[in-house]
Amino acid sequence: MMSRLTLHILVLATLVWVTLTSMALGFSRADYANALDKSILFFDLQLSGKLPSWQRLKWRGDSGLSDGRSGRVDLTGGYHDAGDNVKFGLPMAFSLTMLSWGVVEFRDALRRTGQLGNTLNAIRWGTDYLLKASTGPNELWVQVGDPNTDHNCWQRPEESDPPRTSYKVDANRPGSDVAGETAAALAAASIAFRGIDNAYSDRVLARARRVFDFADRYRGKYSDVLGGEVCPFYCSYSGYQDELVWGAAWLYKATLESGYLQYLYRNGNSLGGTTTTVNAFSWDNKYAGAQILLAQFAFEGVNGLQGYKNQADGYICSVLPRSISQFNRLQYSPGGMPYYMINTNMQYVTSSSFLLTTYAKYLSAARRTVNCGGRQVTAATLISAAQSQVDYILGRNPRGLSYMVGFGRYPTRVHHRAASMPSMRTHPRKIQCLEGFNWFHSWNSNPNVAMGAIVGGPNQNDDFDDARQKIAQTEPALYVNSPIVGVLSELAVGRRY
């Protein structure tokens, strides 16, 4: 009979073999195409309003059909932010900007993979909502739902009981951050739809101009005026200056008008665009995105943008692994994951992979490299770094676990109200506010698959706890998924730089 010690050794050896095998996994172009399809499908899961005919997750139902009623405005549509039922305007707009940027840069790859239409559907659903939300020259509705009462319930979005209170910013209660991001989203979408639906492109661009004018004229942080309604959930921690740079950068890219270029010249220092060095890009801090966006024009010879390009180089050098760049200021997990913070760390992994891929494209077109402490880093190196981050998400990590739901071996207890409870089709009886916590605390797998959702991810030691209560690790969000769409499309077509 086998001894306990021998059995223990065999089990340990098996675990080591599984870990080493998972670390050695390679992904094919078909794998990336599969992950791409799922990454976009997550947006179908988050839809609010009367569901459109193209919605692919048929277990979801209509929700939020009276949104905006408290403010006597139609705010139906848009997206639930994460695993709750609130529509937060700042991260939603950022997510739409990133989806649109993916189309702007990687349209051909999305078309070749058959995902351009699905991506544009997801963008338009969100920008239609932003058009509704920008109700006047100096008025923007920025949230639907009280997050405090919403988080005290665990209910399906189709039957949510907490008040659907609507919140806005205006000339007396400014929100340059959320307005600047909304302008960026609309401007980016105008480029995404150009040549496909020119009338819609013109419409959203006109609205982007108007919303940016409001953001710039009436300056202030939206969290200063909305307080507990947006904090601590989506406070504007970085201030509003980055969103003004970001919005102006997108309007310049969409119009090529000298007025927006002059704005970026004049305000580069005062708004921090040419003086702020960061190593994180997120729904809150847009500096790196704006700097990289403008670096493309610097490569093309547009005068006055070298300061932005220098900061873009600094960001790139700071996020590359220490083996590549001595300027690395990030902590990496033993398995190779960039680690920023405990809360939804994967948002930074997907956003940095997007910026690395985009900058690789710019470098390749300009036949340039990045100087990182005397080492010339090529476009191919940037693509390799981005791919390694994507591969970690998809399962090439010490746990051999995919952090994209529905791909490979993935978490099954995702912190997501709709996915964690039976659908309206299978359980038509209403689930009351507190009754839903029976499902929240259950150790059973979610009855519905949150297809394509990228969860918050493991900690700095590559450890992960598949439990709904571990919000930072198991909750997905729009802004985690949106950057990876463009990256996956490039990997799926196998483009080389």
Automatic annotation (TrEMBL):
GO MF, one annotated term: cellulase activity
Keyword presence, Flavoprotein: no
Keywords: Carbohydrate metabolism, Cellulose degradation, Glycosidase, Hydrolase, Polysaccharide degradation, Signal
Signal peptide residues on this chain, from the entry's feature table: 1-21
Domain of life: Eukaryota
Reactions it catalyzes: Endohydrolysis of (1->4)-beta-D-glucosidic linkages in cellulose, lichenin and cereal beta-D-glucans
SUPFAM superfamilies: Six-hairpin glycosidases
EC nos: 3.2.1.4
All residue ranges annotated as the Glycoside hydrolase family domain in the record: 32-488
One Gene Ontology term from the biological process aspect of the record: cellulose catabolic process
InterPro entries per record: 6-hairpin_glycosidase_sf, 6hp_glycosidase-like_sf, Glyco_hydro_9
Recorded coiled-coil stretches: none
Family affiliation: Belongs to the glycosyl hydrolase 9 (cellulase E) family.
UniProt protein name: cellulase
Organism (species): Physcomitrium patens
Lineage: Eukaryota, Viridiplantae, Streptophyta, Embryophyta, Bryophyta
